[in-house]
């Protein structure tokens, strides 16, 4: 039988590092059930593509049911949503740290939508997005005479 105890040290005693149990005095010395779930595999362009197309065709429609311009227009729509949030940030619509934190979380979602649609647009046209990003990044590095490359 395991004698693993909760580990509160990583979160400054707010939750167990392994199982996520919230700290309370009565559970302080209880046995930990261990990891609540294995960590997900690392996110790569290849994994995003595989899961993205699979989810698209499972939950929405075939990838080729949309024309390339429909995919890029969807991406532009998400870009607009992200820009709308930063517009509001810039004009002071989020005056305190809590509303700004909420807006930042919403911005993260919109930026994620942009990446997800960019990948679907690339998939629709048979573009390897990871390789395209590498080539374009390095092209700009060369243009700017930077040695920093992917
Ligand atoms: Mg969105």
What is the fold's blueprint, element by element?
Blueprint: H1 45-59, H2 68-90, H3 97-124, H4 129-143
The structure holds magnesium ion.
Magnesium ion (MG) is lined by residues 78, 81, 110, 113.
Describe the structure.
- With 150 residues, the chain is mainly α.
- It folds into two domains: 1-39, no CATH class; 45-143, MazG-like (Helix Hairpins, Orthogonal Bundle).
- Helices cover 54% and strands 0% of the residues.
- The chain contains four helices and no strands.
- The chain has helices at residues 45-59, 68-90, 97-124, 129-143.
- Helix 1 (45-59) packs across helix 3 (97-124) and helix 2 (68-90) packs antiparallel against helix 3 (97-124).
- The chain starts with 44 loop residues before the first helix and ends in a 7-residue tail after the last helix.
- The model has no long low-confidence stretch (mean pLDDT 94).
- The structure holds magnesium ion.
- Magnesium ion (MG) binds next to helix 2 and helix 3.
* Elements, N to C (H/E): HHHH
Helicity range? 40-55%
- What profile does the largest beta sheet have? none
Principal-axis shape equals extended
Q: In what range is the share of β-strand residues? A: under 5%
How many β-strand stretches? Answer: 0
CATH class assignment of the largest domain: Mainly Alpha
Q: Number of folding domains? A: 2
Structural class assignment: mainly alpha
CATH architecture annotation of the largest domain: Orthogonal Bundle
Bound small molecules, deduplicated:
magnesium ion
Q: Using only CA atoms, what is the Rg? A: 22 Å
Number of helices: 4
Enter the CATH topology name of the largest domain: Helix Hairpins
């Amino acid at each position: 039988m395991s004698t693993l105890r909760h580990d509160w040290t990583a979160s400054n005693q707010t939750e167990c590092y392994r199982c996520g149990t919230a700290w309370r005095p009565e559970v302080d010395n209880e046995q930990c059930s261990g990891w609540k779930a294995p960590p997900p595999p690392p996110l790569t362009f290849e994994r995003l593509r595989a899961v993205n197309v699979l989810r698209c065709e499972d939950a929405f429609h075939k990838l080729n049911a949309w024309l390339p311009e429909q995919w890029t227009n969807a991406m532009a729509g998400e870009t607009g949503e992200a820009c709308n949030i930063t517009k509001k940030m810039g004009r002071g619509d989020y005056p305190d740290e809590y509303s700004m934190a909420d807006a930042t979380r919403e911005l993260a979602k919109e930026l994620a939508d942009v990446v997800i649609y960019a990948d679907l647009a690339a998939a629709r046209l048979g573009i390897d997005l990871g390789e395209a990003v590498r080539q374009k990044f390095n092209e700009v590095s060369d243009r700017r005479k930077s040695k920093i490359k992917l």
